[in-house]
Amino acid sequence: MSEYTSMELGPLDAWHALDGAAPGKVFLDRELGATNSGVSVNGLAAGQSSPFWHRHARTEEVYVFLGGTGRMALGDEVVEVREGSAVRVAPNTWMAVHADADSATDLRFVCVRAAGVPLAEIGNDAEMSHEPFPWA
Amino acid sequence: MSEYTSMELGPLDAWHALDGAAPGKVFLDRELGATNSGVSVNGLAAGQSSPFWHRHARTEEVYVFLGGTGRMALGDEVVEVREGSAVRVAPNTWMAVHADADSATDLRFVCVRAAGVPLAEIGNDAEMSHEPFPWA
Fold it and tell me: pTM for the complete prediction?
């Protein structure tokens, strides 16, 4: 049996313009029909931040940073991120991402979400917050 | 609550040398303590192939290719892959990856595994095969 789906995102430096509705983020799981994990590719322009904080009630996330420099807020802590940084975020931890103003490229990263059950079973377990970021 | 783990993989072009035991592959889930998804970063030198075919009984995989050029075998089909190619592989589909001999860089990719249950619950559901590759 051979069952797969594929797509072409184009060069990494074009990721910031891939999704008209939510610039800088493409949800591959939706495009590819993945059911057990959520995978997004992201490009955040220099000086930009996530539109809001978010956390998940049951979903664990893993971030892999591929280029650019920036910071990731994790609750009341901030870690610097760059090409090759990898971060696992436990459920219930508030998070946000910021691309340094002097980042040489967009801050590019892959974000993986998984809950230990098919994602459709838990629906949207995200909560948003518009509290100030630590880099504001 | 702020709960996370992080690590530095270093520049993408160093991924091929990150793991002495299995050159070219680092399992971030093991390093970071992720429980619901398996995330590996991979670098396959030009002209090299996966050491074997594999498939999973229950685990769905998503590949995101970040650089280099190559081919992915999916059952009896072969798709060309390059920077920006994304592929979802359903359970029970045999797969293997090959970096073109003239790939300008290592074939770099992130591989995500998820089963819809915590990965520890299903243990190792992989099966290997040493059948010839379509690029042999």
Answer: 0.89
